[in-house]
Protein: Glucose-6-phosphate isomerase
Amino acid sequence: PDIIFDYENAKGFFGPEELVQMEEKVKQKHKMLLDRSGSGSEFLGWIDIPERYDREEFEKIKSAAQKIRKDSDVLVVIGIGGSYLGARAAIEFLQGRYPGYPEVYFAGNNLSSTQILEIKQRLEGRDFSLNVISKSGTTTEPAIAFRFFKRMIQEKYGKAEASGRIYVTTDKNKGALKELAGKEGYTTFVVPDDIGGRYSVLTAVGLLPIAAAGADVDELMAGAALGRNKFMEAGFESNDALQYAAVRNILLEKGKNIEILAGYEPCLHYVAEWWKQLFGESEGKDGKGIFPAAVDLTSDLHSMGQYIQDGQRCIFETVLDLSNTGEEILVGEEEDDLDGLNYLAEKTVDFVNRSAMKGAIKAHVDGGVPNLKVTLAARNERTLGELFYFFESACGVSGYVLGVNPFDQPGVEFYKKNMFTLLGKPEIRQI
Ligand code: PA5
Structure:
């Protein structure tokens, strides 16, 4: 299997009867998800997307990616939140493997003028295309970045050629971006109505940037389809996603209200960022939810490690284990052994990393931090597709167990209201 969930190192923190009770609840909520009888059921399009995706749109995505590959050194991807993190997670997880494909820069995910200028400078003298992604078509951060880079691309290539280099991913029918795309003749891709931002990585939102970066999106979808089979069809005993949902809710009941996702490979950093949005936005509402945090190890063992080992005992840790990278870098022997590392001369860096992981897990468990582990078979598209689906399905079920609607995000509107008042935004024009 590409994904294995293991909670052996959490079993000391709860009794078997608690799991039996939670199992019942989880099975019920899983059924609710499949029946589409829970709250937010109008946003369950992600469940079947690995099998029922729009084949025509998929081919269009692949041809656009091919064109971008031919005519661009760089693809600037403009989007925020659910219209950003999935693509970035996949590209950072995989891209080390695709030399010769366009670089991808991410813009419009903040309001930093220095970042806009930095990207502008990095684009000087290079051929580029833009993919602006916004389901609503009105989000401020990407809209501002798009204005800037649209001007830049038009100045560089002229309006007509620029239009052929701008790809818009948005709602099928409505929104400012849809209207603009129609008027300017940009190629458009659809964010399906029944899929929310944080569940959209396997739609054009994620797929176009991922394909343009050189990844095999067929494999990604195949991995997700395997996930659909395993995590939607299988019963509790053999369903890792349901078990993960169960165990994290038991731990929450024990007062463990912070979950730290820990990766031992830098390519997992944005996978954790994507995961943080998925769980944070899905579960953090109505005064409830596990706070999702993340650490990059072993780096953060030298900073956050202190807190994990020894701070408030309100956390549990979920390790993303990608320790079999297949890289054979030996530590190597030195004659004088001044750094004292000769005892590792014949060992690989992977071996040392794995030993650090095993050592940290044991130390954290001994220190009162339950440990869950998700093992990834390989750094490839198939594993990643399955991993996306694993977390998505676990999150849906887990949110229902918690008693919230895992598919809305009313809380994200509050800062916008204040910001718009401060900015003096006029009444929104209805399109
Ligand atoms: O999950 C969400 O709904 C948000 O994170 C959105 O994805 C984010 O605000 C971007 O929205 P939009 O795609 O409409 O620009």
About this structure: The two ends are 47 Å apart (CA to CA). Residues 8 and 289 are 23 Å apart (CA to CA). Residues 381-402 form the longest helix (22 residues).
